[in-house]
């Protein structure tokens, strides 16, 4: 399964707080469904140098959600509605430039 998913080669891992209390009713699950669909549509799922995505119950910010963190850069985003997720996918994931408007922290694991 790990080989089929391309775990050894993905370039980003997106963790989205899909069930936390930081988002309004249903916002987290709506954003999660959008993220899953768009990653597939963009051809970034289960491919070499693709994108891995995981829903999480809580990222412990609990404000201005849904919250998403993008690794390996460790860039944290707030207000991750489908519209914001699309901007992150286009500008950050595909274009290499973080979306400053929604970024509120950075904690790269490379620095550890």
Span between N and C termini? 29 Å
User: From the helix content, strand content and strand pairing, which structural class follows?
Assistant: alpha+beta
The SSE order reads HEHEEEHE
Strand-residue proportion? 15-25%
Chain oligomer state: single chain
**Fraction in helix:** 25-40%
Q: What would CATH call the architecture?
A: 3-Layer(aba) Sandwich
Task: Describe the 3D structure.
The protein has 112 residues and is of the alpha+beta class. It has one domain: Glutaredoxin, CATH 3.40.30. The chain has three helices and five strands; from the N terminus they run H-E-H-E-E-E-H-E. Strands 2-1-3-4-5 form a five-stranded mixed sheet, with helices on one face. Helix 2 links the parallel strand 1 and strand 2. Helix 2 runs parallel beside helix 3. The chain is globular. The protein starts with a helix and ends in a 6-residue tail after the last strand.
Short précis:
Helix 2 links the parallel strand 1 (about 10-15) and strand 2 (about 50-55). This protein has 3 helices and 5 strands. The protein has helices at about 1-5, 25-40, 80-95, and strands at about 10-15, 50-55, 70, 75, 105.
């Amino acid at each position: 399964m790990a080989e089929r998913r391309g775990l050894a080669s993905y370039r980003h891992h997106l963790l989205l707080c899909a069930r936390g209390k930081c988002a309004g009713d249903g916002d987290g699950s709506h954003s999660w469904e959008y993220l899953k669909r768009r990653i597939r549509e963009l051809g970034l799922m289960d491919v070499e140098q693709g994108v891995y995505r995981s829903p999480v119950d809580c990222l412990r910010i609990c404000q201005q959600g849904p919250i998403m963190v993008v690794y390996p850069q460790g860039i944290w985003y707030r207000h991750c509605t489908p519209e914001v997720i699309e901007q992150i996918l286009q500008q950050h994931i595909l274009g290499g430039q973080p979306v400053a408007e929604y970024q509120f922290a950075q904690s790269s694991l490379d620095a550890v």
